[in-house]
Amino acid sequence: MAVSSAKLRTLYIMKMLLEKTDEKYTMSSADINKVLREYGMSADRKTIYSDVETLREFGIDVLHTKGTNSGYYVGSRKFELPELKLLVDAVQASKFISKKKSEELIKKLESLAGEHDARQLQRNVFIYNRPKTGNETIYYNVDQIHTAILKNRQIQYRYAEWTVKKELKPKKNGAVYTVSPWSLTWDDANYYLIAYDADADCMKHYRVDKMQQTCVTDQERVGKEKFQNFDLAEFSKKTFSMYGGHDEEVTLECGNGIIGVILDRFGTETIVMPVGRERFRVRVPVVVSRQFFGWVTGIGANLHIAGPEHVRQEYKEYLQSIVGRY
Question: What is the pLDDT of residue 126?
């Protein structure tokens, strides 16, 4: 057999072991030779053993078991099955990934597992019923943003909003936004750009799926100092559904039964101050907005805003505006 054919044979053996084997499903030398014949080549047991040793030296975890299920199989992989399941569920749950692209990504994730484990990833679970974007331009936007960050350049785009006709229409009569992109973040199943707006002299966030005609400019990015002082984790904690508002340090008084809700929202480092035996208080930074008030209302009587007074007044006005509708 020619040298090139011998190398090709080793690659085919690697391919079949990665695709067809795991701890439960092994391939004997006879099984491997049978598949090799489909590729127009063959090998004896000694040759297969030698090729397997080459794969081991290359870093493939090829193991051999004896007994009734004697044969070769791939032990550990770059991604274990539970890890791939997590990634598949994340793709399915992501509103900013279209159904078509979700299916494409999941198919690629399946290729990282053996064909037997891949069947467990083919789960069209109920998450598919969640809203999925039909906007395929998000992948182009992400590519342009990453390119701009890599090249230290600003980007330009038009920002859109939904109309009652269910169409994305550019805001501000198609005004062009120019910002310095610094990061991308995922919040509430949506993808956001974190960027510095020089005109407003502050960091802002934008929904990536609502950006249109995105392009990289020749202008260098600005706002590095602002971004270095920008705590993305803290921003995510205090911002509800990424809606803007005004920053406040708010005191919340809560029933003991919702301590888990508070720690999930604001972090386990939050200082908890007992108030009697049944309640506690926390002082937390939030962006006061309708979304924050909606979150407070959703929890109900087990939580109320204890201060500051002007935020309490805003909340009263928010509730009165809703009650007035009824």
Answer: 41
Q: Distance (Å, rounded) from C-alpha 185 to C-alpha 195? A: 11
* Distance from C-alpha of 97 to C-alpha of 309, rounded to nearest angstrom: 42
Q: How many CB atoms lie within 10 A of CB 22?
A: 18
Is pLDDT at 229 greater than 70 in this prediction? Answer: yes
- Interatomic CA distance for residues 315 and 23, integer angstroms: 59
What is the rounded CA–CA span in Å between residue 225 and residue 211? Answer: 25
More reliable by pLDDT, 131 or 136: 136
Q: Which of 272-296 are b and which e, b meaning 16 or more Cβ less than 10 Å from the residue's Cβ?
A: eeeeeeebbebebebbbbebbbebb
Closest CA to 107 of 88, 129, 132: 88
Structure tokens at 189: 């199943």
The reported pLDDT for the residue numbered 241 is: 56
**In 3-state terms, what secondary structure has residue 210?**
helix
Chain centre distance of CA 159? 22
Give how far Cα 94 sits from Cα of 51, 79, 232, 325, Å.
Answer: 42, 21, 20, 34
Distance CA 98, CA 131 (A): 9
Mean predicted confidence (pLDDT) in 72-93: 84
In sequence order, the 6+-apart residues with CB closer than 8 A to the CB of 323 are none
